[in-house]
Amino acid sequence: MALPPALVVALERKLPPGAILTESEDLRVYECDGLTGHRQVPALVCLPETTEEVQAVVRACVACSVPFVARGAGTGLSGGALPVADGIVISLARMNRVLEVDLDAQRVVVQPGVTNLQVTEAVAADGFYYAPDPSSQQVCTIGGNLAENSGGAHCLKHGFTVNHVLAAVVVLPDGELARLEADAPGPDLLGVFVGSEGTLGIATEVTLRVLRRPEAIVTLLAAFDSTDAAGAAVSVVVAARILPAAMEMMDRLTIEAAEAAVHADYPAGAEAVLIVELDGVTAQVEEDVAAVRSICTEQGAFEIRIAADDVERALLWKGRKSAFAAMGRISESYYVQDGVVPRTKLPGVLRRIAQLERSYGLRVGNVFHAGDGNLHPLVLYDERKEGEPERARELAEAILLACVDAGGSITGEHGIGTDKACSMPLLFGPSDLEAMARLRRAFDPAGLANPGKVLPTPRLCGEVPGPYRQHPLEKVGLAERF
Description:
Elements: H1 5-14, E1 20-21, H2 24-27, E2 44-46, H3 51-64, E3 68-71, E4 88-91, E5 98-102, E6 107-110, H4 116-123, E7 128-129, H5 142-148, H6 155-158, E8 165-171, E9 177-181, H7 189-193, E10 202-209, E11 211-212, E12 216-224, H8 227-239, E13 246-251, H9 252-262, E14 272-280, H10 282-298, E15 303-306, H11 310-321, H12 323-326, E16 333-336, E17 339-340, H13 346-360, E18 364-368, E19 374-375, E20 377-381, H14 388-405, H15 430-443, H16 458-461, H17 472-475
Parallel strand pairs: 2-4, 3-4
Antiparallel strand pairs: 1-2, 5-6, 6-10, 7-11, 8-9, 8-10, 12-14, 12-15, 13-14, 13-18, 16-20, 17-19, 18-20
Helix pairs in contact: 1-3, 8-10, 8-13, 9-11, 13-14
């Protein structure tokens, strides 16, 4: 469907030359995010550089009743930046400036197109850093992190994006401007906005909290003969009232992929490895490292290694943070799942995933934030084989349901987007979903901001299912529940 001519005229009048993309080869770049199984070419792409230009684009869309989707770097893994066929994409890539650094107040003000890593780079020389660190931190942007409430390895101790956002300037879905602040009186509107996946407006300036670099940082790697033993070690560490900065797990398949890609020198023959990082005051870190080493040994670790310096520490983390991309060496196609389970249920859920692997005849690589139970199973498949992509998606959904059965959630940090909107009834009842929809309508009564994301609709999902209808685990003979 062609865009209203009045919209194109308004955009051309408000935006500088070169800020509007209409050629098909340009538009196709924006047809999906990191979840490439969902694709849709937008009708037009805008590249604003200022808050005022974002306002102008949104107001033009509202005047013509045209839907719009905000987009950062396109690294998301839930279809959250999937365009609408008859709508436009508002790319924030050109809004990439660090606006203010105030280390006395431990804050940095940035535009949404600044990458996650650039925030740390802006303050590192003065002994500060930005704590949330998604694996894609070199390329993912603060605007996208805000939209998805992104996590990362070091969020176990220091919290997710929402814990580090102090304020945001937001273009609301009607084109009006608002400043949301963490300490403002009344309802926590900033907390509502962070993680809303572009459905409540577009952040154009973000004030972030940065932290002082800790006195001591120690990174430990422990290798185990089973994921059960590694998962048990995670629970024992936390039960001992030790709070690592990060606690990550990789299974054998993921270890092999990472080794082939970056040669991180992980122990040969390990069925699972834990990467545990502890930071803080030197005396406390030394005490905690000794305790973690003892716990891992008691839980069956056959090798424990402590990074000798920053170079070795960086290599251990490079293997972990390269795991998703490295899996491409093993399988050209894979489906990334994102669920959460209680830490104590990790061994059981990993066994359930292994059962599902066998039942569906597909391989699954597990790499995840073990400390907070945030799983990232990678379901490997061959898209050239008839029926295999569909089987991979069904397996991924069964894993998600296993997480819910264990008392967990359907996402930890990747968001709901398009991919999981139809799974929302697994966690929420009709009254919960209606409350969310009412909140959304309060911000966006016209329904133009990133439509089709987060909440299930009949158009997207057909009849919205009740919890556990046509239980996938029953389908493969694994109906036992946690």
